[in-house]
Design a protein that fits this description.
Length: 538
């Protein structure tokens, strides 16, 4: 039997698998994506795209279809205590996307697959994995397609095959955690009497119910009914059961009708001990699961992809060594660990009743009146502050000579306005989208020593890592005349790179393809900066 060889094998074509396939296609990586199901699911599980995921979609060049079809949810209205609801407003999010983009998962998958197909990518459906075998140089996978058994070999495998991952089970990787023991209800329905732009959450001793408005006027409803806990859990929910449950929980009755789908489900929080096992990487729900509070799960998976795929491409191109891929687990596992901790605590708080529940409601109302609390809450939900600056390698790149406001290794780089080549405004993120690795060298104004440093560094970097990164000179303004014109010039006329990123004369900012800082160095010393660049790729 002939073995089908590829560089990367992706198992699973949910949101994470589809995004991974898109990134690999964009970067020109040879890959194959296998999916067990014959087509996309018509049932929508996840429904919200957080700001950080939208930024990653922008790096991929697929953000506009999502913005066109989604609904920018401005925040949440919380019915906790008293007649007047409390609000959590999302405009505090420090991103170009200060909202939760509400769009059902089936449409998310449709957009990603359409984008993939338009660029020559493909998903191989109805392929069921039978066996996985690791070797030193890669991974063998046996799969069956319409009764025909096929064998694949890949240098790297991405397990994007969900909470019940076949890859995880075949490799006997533990999924550490526990079930949370609460039965939730969910579904997409029409609610004729509800005219809301905010997410509406009702919380009391009878249970909890949240309504998420879709762009077409329908709603996702999700919650739990205290009277329906315990005993065997049914999978299917009838419309009359949902109506009875909502009538029990809500102070005001809302009629629900014309369901697209209804279901009961349970929740759990679990995580694999290491996201990398040999040449296999666990991504999304195959690596971690948590309850649905805050719309975190799918987004963490998309961000896993945003962290991993460019690293694999960097290794395949020979720019980095195999140990470079260990940083995937080091950077991503703590993010999911924190989300699991927070959502588990939030579920315990939501499940409180009696005097504890009353105390939670009244204290919640008092706290949410504070603007700074709303800002912290909104930015945490959006994942824009999911930085990697505390990992060992990123801590080792921290430059103490920089100002306190300077952005450091591992931190997310916020989008900035640039005056490019002295002719037009452009943002930083489109540069990252087009180029991948971007290096900014702040020369302040015309200073020959710094210009020489920039050109010498660019030459050495290109010699060590051919065609990998693009170097830009950054000047505050004025005329920058050089004897050579290979390096484009950004004029920091808005002072964004100075004020927001802490760049100053002589500083070098190396930005990764996922928009995080590789390192920020203030020495203007070619030898030192090159040493950091080489050490970064291990």
């Amino acid at each position: 039997m002939a073995v089908i060889e590829t560089d990367v094998l992706i198992i699973g074509a949910g949101p994470a698998g589809l995004m991974a396939s898109n990134v690999m296609t964009k970067r020109g990586v040879d890959y194959i994506c296998l999916e067990k199901k014959p087509g996309r699911s018509v049932l929508s599980k996840a429904l919200g795209i957080q700001a950080r995921s939208l930024e990653l979609f922008e790096f991929l060049g697929v953000n506009k279809p999502f913005l066109k079809r989604g609904y920018p949810g401005p925040g949440a209205k919380l019915h906790l205590a008293g007649k007047h609801p409390s609000y959590v407003e999302l405009y505090h999010i420090k991103s170009r996307y200060p909202y939760l983009l509400i769009i059902p998962q089936d449409e998310i998958e449709e957009i990603l697959e359409d984008h993939l197909n338009a660029r020559g990518g493909q998903i191989f459906r109805e392929h069921e994995v039978l066996d996985v075998t690791q070797k030193d140089n890669g991974v063998y996978v046996t799969a069956v397609h319409h009764g025909i058994t096929k064998t694949y070999f890949a240098k790297y495998l991405l397990a994007c095959d969900g909470a019940h991952s076949k890859i995880r089970k075949e490799l006997d990787v533990p999924f550490v955690g526990e079930d949370e023991g609460i039965t939730f209800f969910t579904g997409d329905v029409e609610v004729p009497d509800m005219k809301e732009i905010h997410i509406n959450l009702h919380l009391n001793d009878r249970g909890a119910a949240a309504f998420f408005p879709y762009k077409d006027g329908t709603y996702r409803v999700v919650g739990f009914d205290r009277t329906r806990q315990g005993g065997p859990r049914k999978k299917e929910m009838k419309l009359h059961e949902l109506q009875t449950t909502l009538d029990t929980i809500l102070d005001r009755s809302y009629k629900v009708q014309h369901p697209k789908w209804l279901a009961y489900f349970g929740t759990a929080h679990r995580q694999v001990p290491n996201y990398r096992v040999g040449n296999v990487f666990f991504v999304g729900d195959a690596a971690h699961v948590n309850n649905p509070l805050g719309g975190q799960g799918m987004n963490i998976g998309l961000e896993d992809v945003g962290n991993l795929c460019w690293k694999i491409d960097t290794v395949l191109k020979g720019y980095a060594g195999n140990p470079f891929l260990d940083t995937y687990h080091e950077e991503r596992a703590p993010v999911a660990r924190e989300v699991i901790r927070n959502t588990t605590l939030e579920l315990k708080m939501i499940h409180m009743k009696g005097l504890l529940g009353q105390a939670r409601n009244w204290s919640g109302k008092a706290v949410l009146k504070q603007g700074w609390v709303q800002s912290i809450f909104a930015n945490a939900l959006s994942h824009v502050h999911s930085d990697y600056d505390k990992t060992p390698i990123n801590r080792s790149f921290r430059d103490k000579s920089l100002s306190r406001k300077a952005i450091q290794a591992g931190e997310r780089v916020p989008d900035q306005v640039l005056f490019n080549e002295g002719t037009t405004d452009e943002r930083l993120y489109p540069l990252i989208q087009r180029l991948g690795y971007v290096c900014l060298i702040y020369i302040d104004c015309y200073e020959q020593d710094l210009i020489d440093f920039a050109y010498d560094f660019a030459e050495e970097a290109n010699r060590a890592f051919p065609d990998m990164l693009k170097v830009y000179l950054v000047a505050r303004g004025g005329t920058v005349i050089t004897e050579r014109d290979e390096l484009p010039i950004i004029y920091d006329v808005h002072r964004d790179l100075d004020k927001n990123l802490g760049m100053s004369k002589g500083s070098t900012l190396f930005i990764r393809p996922d928009g995080h800082v590789g390192f920020h160095d203030g020495s203007a010393d070619v030898r030192k900066v090159m040493a950091k660049l080489k050490r970064y790729f291990i």
